[in-house]
Amino acid sequence: MGEVSDSKEISRIQAIPRRKWTEEEAKELAEALTRALKTPQGTMKLRPLQAVALYEMGTNGGALLPIRVGGGKTLISLLAGRMFEHCRRPLLVIPAALRDKTLREEKTLRRHWVLPAYIKTVSYAALSRERFATFLDTDYRPDVIIADECHKLSNQKSGCTRRIHRYLKANPGVAFVGMSGTITKASLKDFAHLAFWALRNRSPLPNNWYETLQWSLAVDVGVKKDRRLAVGALSKLGDGRNAREIVRDRLIETPGFVASSDGPLDVPLHITSRLVDSPLQKEFSDLRSKWETPEGIECTDGIEVWRHARELGVGCYYRWNPPPPEAWKAARSVWARACRETIQNGRRNIDTELQLKLHIRDNPTHYPEAKEALEEWEAIQPSYDPTVEAVWLTDEIEKQVLEWARVSPGLVWTGIRFFAERLSNRLPYYGSQGIDSKTGRVIEDHPPNKGSAVVSIAANSTGRNLQAWNRNLVVGMPTNGKAWEQLLGRTHRDGQRNPVSVEVWFTCREDLDGFWKAVDQARYIEQVTGQCQKLTYATKNVHKEIEKELPQWVTGMTLTV
Question: How many CA atoms lie within 13 A of 244 on its CB side?
């Protein structure tokens, strides 16, 4: 086994000053900044963590703030512009689903705080669009960029991330403030570039890709045993028991890096699970053994099998309408079979269709048959553009969910859109931007005494304050620790007065594996950032293994998701 090697980057990081805030210092700062920033009629007070975050960004020319869900990031984001003397054009970047909510809260907070006269707010999705191509460079030219839920910028290949990167590189005097309750999912690579944007040469993580990769192989979750690196030169940065402890201490003691480090909330959080048997065992059997959907369409890789298994778990599958032409279907089947055989071969660490495509283009002689199948498929693929529709094979799961919702008011969380839309025939459904399309009401305006509601995980698991609720059901769940932390933080948060219960329904083996993979990732996040994760400290009475020998619960293969 190798180890992390010594380098100039290790020496640079070792030389960065360390600081620790005492509880008393943070309280005194909160009182002083409250007096300086509040309006004459304002009655709100800064929390110590909010005050430290604001002070640190102002004194360090930027900040990276992994602050837990419910830690008061909205107020920090709106006050951030006040911390920079040169700030005239602050830009707040937020998820599209939170835009209306943020604007409503800004209006309320202006009564209590002296916010910048004007804050331009734009969504990550908008900033990726073609019509925003010149927004940063010529249209608005922000002098401070505040990114709320900055984990949206973790993918360095996304259009939005590339645009912000280019702008900051061309304008080194522009300050960057990144905030997120879930700044990393499974790797240091998720946020090393964000640390550089915020702190430049005072970043506590490597500023080049090669050394970031080395650190990741010592720290990240899911690294294969034969690739894991020992601590090596990381030991120069601290005397922790392992690589994660060393990196965590270096991060949280770096000026400009402010992480919430308080313990679990006092309010109990209970997670239980239930195995939901499906009547669709034949359909599961065909999916496992043939990689085929119920209408005979072959899957190209494990990700597609994973997706179809979760759909079958709630009683449906997606089909194309109108059906594809036979020639199109045949070419796709040949390519799907080539993908499957190559992936199951296990060579060259190829696990997905996209990886195989990229490998063939870079190495055209390695898989000649797959290359021929890909060329034929790509030639005919544009000739047919299907519409996707859901075909329902059973309503058994739907009935059980409706019964759960009838017993007592609760939130039904799901990541499967067609399932949510089907439930919306009987329950209010808060989808895009947290709005019920039938009534126009936002989820925050739906009190529990009006009965249960269905909520989209994608649209509502960040930024929403749903502490009025304390009973949750999750069907079609997220599969990573970051997404779980956000979801749980909607109801289990500051201000919650009642114990929070979360019932997780496993509808297939993929659900079970995904949940425990998320727990492993939550443990990594906690160990690296110092933030307590709800998945790790919740009381859990959750299945770990399934002894049933039914196709629904036996995958028959190892899937990489």
Answer: 16
**pLDDT above 90: residue 169:** yes
Q: Is the pLDDT of residue 1 over 70?
A: no
138 within 8 A of 85, measured Cβ to Cβ: no
Residues with Cβ < 8 Å from 392, sequence gap 6 or more? 315, 316, 422
Residues 526 and 532: their CA atoms lie apart, in Å, by: 5
Give the pLDDT band of residue 159 (cuts 50, 70, 90). confident
pTM above 0.90, yes or no: no
- Do 91 and 142 meet the contact criterion of CB atoms below 8 Å apart? yes
In the numeric block, which tokens belong to residue 403? 């019964």
Rounded CA separation 325/305 (Å) = 22
Yes or no: say if 46 and 239 are a contact pair by the CB < 8 Å rule: no
Cβ pair 405, 455 in contact under 8 A: no
Phi first, then psi, for residue 353 (nearest 5°) are -60, -45
User: Counting beta carbons within 10 angstroms of the beta carbon of residue 67, is it exposed (0 to 12), middle (13 to 18) or buried (19 or more)?
Assistant: buried
Answer whether residue 556 shows pLDDT above 70: no
Q: Would you say residue 279 has pLDDT above 60? A: yes
Give residue-wise pLDDT tens across range 25-67.
999 999 999 999 999 999 999 999 999 999 999 999 999 999 9
The string over 516-544, giving b where at least 16 C-beta atoms fall within 10 Å of a residue's C-beta and e elsewhere, is: ebbbebbbbbbbbbbbbbbbbebebebbe
Instruction: Please say whether the beta carbons of 39 and 112 come within 8 A.
Output: yes
